[in-house]
Amino acid sequence: MKVFCKRFFTVLAVFALCLLSGIGTVHAKAATGFTVVNVDGKCRFLEGSYDAKKLNVSDTKEMSELSKKIKDGDSLTFYGINAAVTVELSVKLKELAVVQSFMPLVTAKSIETVYITGGSTAVVHCDVTNAYLYSDAVATFDGNVTNLIFAASGSVAPTPSVNTTGTISYFEKQDASGDVVQGLYDFKKGKFATNKGALITPAAEYKTSGVKPSDKAEVNEKKTDPKTFSKKMSAYADVFDATYYVEKYPDLKEAFGNDTKALFNHFLNCGMNEGRQGCADFDPKFYMSQYSDLQKAFGTDTVAYYIHYIQFGKKEGRKAVQ
Fold it and tell me: In a designed cystine with 271, which of 59, 159, 258, 267 is the match (CB 3.0 to 4.6 A)?
């Protein structure tokens, strides 16, 4: 989550400097950034950077052209819009920023990150991975939101008003200093709502404990589907030794003797699922009991612990035996 916050404050710093200095400049990403601005009372857009003092109408285009220009992975900013404007896009946006703007209604396939600053109102019609709202922002999310953050801006505590029609996987509220004062999970569909920063959702509609989607994703990046992981014995050298395996389990010795291939096939197809210890250096039950991050990510998926240790745990220096 710190990565997301740090990233936005870089963007927000640009906006803040513009507003405080009166220069009115927003730097969108070259070739992939589009900014919707107010030109003589009408909404128009331009590609690239925007400078209010140097803006020429010839640099802007009619809103009807936006859907033809914008592509998957592009970013879109609304800056200083004071009238409702509807934008329907059939792309996956990387970022949507709403700055000092009233009521843009944005439809897209999905949006990775949404930023809505104080004094702005927006409606978003799609699923969103990360949404950051500041100060007294107002928003409606007509889709699912993975991470919804009420973030501090300078020394101003966030007091957004939000309504949703989808689910919220994780909600976080910060105080004026940026410390997290509220963290809630798994809001049911259409149940999340706040008024001036205060949560008005009944307690029965969410959970007070859980795993942040960002934390879970960080661990899941280190999880390989056992079905696609190598079936070669050499790939399991850190968790399987045929001699140890057969000596530890008399039932296997009786069934397979010293047939290394048969022992490995048993380990691969049955032993890991049963939580059997395949070598002296890796005890799956001990490994599972030691690391809460893995427990939250993998639960009782026993095989996942073996694969995690092979790929990452040993390199990370995680303890695997008592």
Answer: 267
Amino acid at 61: K
CA distances to 6, 17, 54 from 219, in Å: 21, 37, 48
What is the domain extent for residue 109? 2-210
Looking up tokens 């389990």 gives 249
Q: How far apart are CA 91 and CA 77, in angstroms?
A: 15
Torsion sign over Cα 156, 157, 159, 164: positive
Query: Given 3-state DSSP classes, what are the helix, strand and coil percentages for the chain, each rounded to the nearest 5?
Result: 30, 35, 35
CB 141 within 8 A of CB 117: no
Nearest to 134 by CA among 170, 93, 95, 176: 176
Whether 86 maps to a domain, the answer reads: yes
Q: Contact, 135 vs 158, CB < 8 A?
A: yes
Which pLDDT tens digit goes with each residue over 258-313?
888 889 988 988 889 889 999 999 999 999 999 888 888 888 888 889 998 998 88
Among candidate residues 210, 240, 265, the one where a domain is terminated: 210
pTM tops 0.70, yes or no: no
Residues 206 and 226 in one domain: no
